[in-house]
Write a structure and sequence with these properties.
The chain is mainly α. Helix content is 69%, strand content 9%.
């Protein structure tokens, strides 16, 4: 740099100014959001007029995504989606035949009844927990009576 001539230094200054001006112009372009929005809209319109397939595919994908979200929320909020509904066993249909009277004629109409499945593990667990709950309630009731008797004695 010590041996550089004055015209070379001036040329270097001009080049540096040009680079700084270009950088400032790029920054100004990035900061100008309305102009960038107009440019993006113009590019999209040109693409639409050339080939609308990608934009139609994008719109269809977005619509399918929104529909999936709506359906998912509806399913989540329905009573069938509750965990209790999954734990409740479906009763087994059983055919009840018609009773025959003494005169040999049928009394009534054959019907289907429902009975609980004895081999269903969910149902067995529910019945066992109900039995334990009743036992605990009886014990609590007895303990309450004993406490009341003790309180009367004092």
């Amino acid at each position: 740099m010590a041996n550089d001539s004055l015209p070379e230094l001036e040329l270097a200054n001009v080049r540096t100014r040009e680079r700084i001006t270009d950088t400032v112009e790029r920054i100004r372009h990035k900061v100008d959001v309305p102009a960038r929005t107009r440019l993006a809209i113009a590019k999209t319109k040109q693409r639409w007029h050339r080939d609308p397939t990608p934009l139609v595919a994008l719109a269809a994908t977005a619509a399918a995504g929104v529909a999936a979200i709506v359906v998912g929320v509806r399913i989540r909020n329905s009573p069938a989606a509750r965990l209790d509904a999954l734990r409740t066993p479906a009763p087994v249909p059983v055919f009840k035949p018609v009773k025959v009277g003494k005169d040999g004629t049928a009394k009534g109409v054959p019907v289907f009844a429902r009975k609980d499945d004895k081999h269903n593990p969910v149902l067995r667990d529910q019945k066992a927990s109900e039995k334990r709950r009743k036992t605990v309630q009886k014990q609590a009731k007895k303990a309450g009576k004993r406490a009341a008797k003790r309180a009367k004695r004092i």
